[in-house]
Amino acid sequence: MFPKQRREKIVQILDEQGHATVEELAARFSVSVDSIRKDLGVLAKDGLCRREYGGAHRMEREGEPQRMSTARGDAATPVSPALSDSPAIADVNDDTILGDEGRRAVAARAYMEINDGDAIFLDISRTNIYLADIIAKGDKRLIVTTNMMDIPRRLSGNPKVTALLTGGVLNPQLTGFIGSASISLLEPLLFAKAFIGCNGCSVDDHSVMADSMDDGLVKEKVLHNASYCFLLADHAKFGIKNGYRFASINDFSAVITDEKDLGVLGKITSTGTPALCC
After folding, report:
1. Which residues are bridge partners to 148 per DSSP?
2. Cα-flanking dihedrals φ and ψ of residue 231, to 5°?
3. Which residues, listed in sequence order, are joined to residue 256 by a DSSP beta bridge?
4. In 3-state terms, what secondary structure has residue 169?
5. Of 168, 188, 248, 256, whose CB is crowded by the most CB atoms within 10 A?
């Protein structure tokens, strides 16, 4: 199938489902996630979809009746550094988001590792969006630092939580701050615990990948600044080897995952890093 035909099919899928992840589209068309990212970039530029971290939403057409979908009802607007609604992340209370059951489970297990009084870091990750919603409903007194714009808004309703946004160079597709400026701003900050997402994780060579070098270098900095670092990896992340390698599995205090394959879990624990299963 030629790229143009694949993109037409992707638009049809988004129109029917409302949302699709990069991983499911790559599996459906038997191409790499990088190819799908390029497709979504072209479609977003042409106004045929709305990009988000890890996938895309259908684009509401002008004059078209409002449809129920996995996205929030707000219109697509340019992302600014203010703590306003970001249209890029779907509402985590919407159970129609495909493939996110694993992320929800990982987020719930991650919350168990957070103690009252902790200073924690949540990086750019859909799983951390779910974790932020759990924190927002909880009763733990926390300081939460993040480089993802949507997280402070979600935490703002909990008076026990102090939310800090790093700042830096904004990446609209990731709806977060990455690059050297963010790394400099993180330099003096220390965390009791950090919860780090990934683009993929290979249990064969123990590599952990980020979306890009700029994204990965921020994650790497947080790894150095946290006493305990948890890798958030739902089952769909294993076997994916695309992007920038920013760490090895044994750089983490533990891997939090919904993976059930004993072979995969055995390869994780063989590195000396525990696998915390949900």
Report:
1. 176
2. -85, 125
3. 232, 276
4. strand
5. 256
